[in-house]
Amino acid sequence: METHLTSRFTNVVNASFTMKALLGGWKSRGFALPKRHFFESKMPQPAIDLVHLARQTGGDHELERELLALFSQQCVRHLRTIHAAQDARSRIDAAHTLKGAARAIGAWEVADAADAIERHLAQDDVRRAETAMDALALAAAEARAAISRFECAA
Q: In this structure, which CATH number among 1.10.3110, 3.30.2000, 1.10.3470, 1.20.120 belongs to the domain 50-153?
């Protein structure tokens, strides 16, 4: 087993050096490389970080499903408050609560958007808060869709 792992590690390291040599060779021959190479590009972040969620729940799948269902409900309730509340304090509190819930389950995009709303509303920057609300609505929709897929797969 150890030999197999060492062999796989060596293959990965060799492939890495080969790629660097190949790219270095292209540069030395005067070829221009795009700013971001195919292996440097970031993959889109998943709506729910299931590895983080599993760590939070100790791998208890039933607890994961329960937390995801609660988060989905919280999304709807807090989004309504963020969009419809008349006073800034209620909107800030709803964004803060949603940010904490999102971080607990690994919904990083939701957490980031809620954090932006919280900051912009606290600074009375309505224009940026509105932009962040659009991002939050999209991130929440993606998270809720991922939760639905997760529940269907169970």
A: 1.20.120
